[in-house]
Structure formats: structure tokens, C-alpha cells
Amino acid sequence: MRFLVDECLSPALAAALHEAGHDAVHIVDLGQRGAPDTVVMQLARLQHRVLVSADTDFGELLARSHASEPSVVLFRGDEVGPAVLAATLLGNLDQVEQSLASGAIVVILDDRIRVRRLPIGADPEQP
User: Fold this and answer.
1) What is the secondary structure of 59-102 as a DSSP string?
2) For residue 87, which phi and psi values (nearest 5 degrees)?
3) Higher per-residue confidence, 79 vs 105
4) What's the chain's Rg over C-alpha atoms?
């Protein structure tokens, strides 16, 4: 998969994903340190990358815009190091990969994973 790791997470996470065989870059590697969330989302969308973050603002932006991309992985819960985050994402990727490929927000919590299809709010049947 193609990942864009947000500034709030360590560049070591992008490196670990890359070492596992994924096309992963950190936002700082793209010269976008301090870029607004809207710019980060646009970069992920244009480069067809899944945005990986711990910033819940991305979910809000997707909900307000009713956008169907980019897919986002949000880490929520106890703060852990980049190696643990990478292992958690890689260990659960098989279960969420199809959702990410078709447009979703995947929230990885300490004890569970939630998947929400995109676009958010466009389907009145969707909770």
C-alpha cells in the first residue's frame, strides 16, 4: 500500500512501513512540515496514499466535505512508539486493506478497530 504519515507521528513509522515493503513517506520528507491539514489531505489524495495520523481533525474534514478519499488510518489510545504502531498496523492490514482501498477511515484503538466507509454523512442509512 501507499502511505503518507502525518507530522504528529514519527518518521520512524514511515520507515518501518517502508521496510515492510510498502510505499510509505512522512509528510516532512515531502517538505511539508507544518502544512495545514487540508494540504496534507490533498497531498494524500493526489498521490493516492492512505493518510496515517493520530489527529482526529482528518475525520472531521472528511465528514464535512463528504469526500470519498483519501482513506485515513487514525491511531487512538495510549501513546506508544513507532515500532508498536507499525506492528499494529501491519498486523491488522489484511483485515482492513480492502476497506482502505475502497475509501474508509480506520480507527485503531487499544482494544479494537473501527471501520467507517467514505464518504461520511452522504448515506442516511450509515450510522
Assistant:
1) HHHHHHHT-----EEEE-SS---HHHHHHHHHHHHHHHHHHHHH
2) -65, -40
3) 105
4) 13
Phi/psi zone of residue 48: left (φ > 0), alpha (ψ -120 to 50 degrees), beta? left
| CB atoms closer than 10 angstroms to residue 63 | 16
For 8, phi then psi, to 5°, come to -70, -10
Residues 17 and 86 sit within 8 Å (Cβ to Cβ): yes
pTM beyond 0.90: the answer is yes
State the amino acid at position 75 in one-letter form. Answer: F
Asked if residue 126 lies in contact with residue 117, where contact means CB atoms within 8 angstroms, the answer is yes
The answer to whether residues 120 and 126 touch, using CB atoms and an 8 Å cutoff, is: yes
Q: Can you give the residue ranges of every domain in the chain?
A: 2-117
pLDDT tens, residue by residue, 9-34: 999 999 999 999 999 999 999 999 99
104 in helix, strand or coil?
strand
DSSP code of residue 122: S
What gap in Å lies between CA 116 and CA 108, rounded to an integer?
12
